[in-house]
Amino acid sequence: xxxxxxxxxxxxxxxxxxxxxxxxxxxxxxxxxxxxxxxxxxxxxxxxxxxxxxxxxxxxxxxxxxxxxxxxxxxxxxxxxxxxxxxxxxxxxxxxxxxxxxxxxxxxxxxxxxxxxxxxxxxxxxxxxxxxxxxxxxxxxxxxxxxxxxxxxxxxxxxxxxxxxxxxxxxxxxxxxxxxxxxxxxxxxxxxxxxxxxxxxxxxxxxxxxxxxxxxxxxxxxxxxxxxxxxxxxxxxxxxxxxxxxxxxxxxxxxxxxxxxxxxxxxxxxxxxxxxxxxxxxxxxxxxxxxxxxxxxxxxxxxxxxxxxxxxxxxxxxxxxxxxxxxxxxxxxxxxxx
Length: 338
Fold this sequence. Notes:
This protein is α/β, with parallel strands linked by helices. The protein has two domains: 13-251, Aspartate Aminotransferase, domain 2; 255-337, Aspartate Aminotransferase, domain 1 (Alpha-Beta Complex). The protein contains 14 helices and eleven strands.
């Protein structure tokens, strides 16, 4: 019963098969291979627009390199105070941008609000040399509380950012889970809503390490700049085909969304178990994460029974389901708490 993170899950068998197939012969290096060409075209179809894309192995590299394109060393990125880029990436956005800082705002359920961002932007003076103005806005979808931004919320925040001259980034480490909940298309929640750059994560959805940086619209013309940054940072895999092959296995048939739907369904079942047993949910369950407050003896019972999870800094417990979570594990939790 490993609910510690969706990164604890194994690779999906289709991903392993794709890696084996990609290993049968030699291929050009550094992304000049057929797998990378194919996944680039496939992503254009999935997102219903021309785009530029490159690949890295970690979400941190994806976020930080993406932000380095739109946040200069003298600027700031607005994000939620609990955003992964602020809490969990050890200053990587500042490192990759050469000094750009994060301006962290609050908001219920780890969501930025239009009012909060508007207040922050209204208070800044870009002409005041002693100030660090915002140049970028970053949203997490699914966010760090396991909650989604609606299409209207993404559109409103992006429109506000663009009106003040900011570029927009989306941390989509769990985008598949958000799409499964929202029931919308990838295009609708990204570039059609105003997102300029997307960090698309597949590692949490069945891959072994496949994270894309996707540039939409005018940003697509900056691919060479991004590639230079990726190379300098040491995130240009020589055998790029093995990353692209993983992505193809998940994206080609829509498998990534099927796996996300399963993880979401398991989270809903788990949340139901907790509330039936007297637990209180801290956030709506809109993806594959459940934040719950139980009694201390209940936590102890779960751990003694083999369940792995994290106690969050706010005192709640985070349980994360994944593509491989079997219904029997949810039943086991119910049995332990009954």
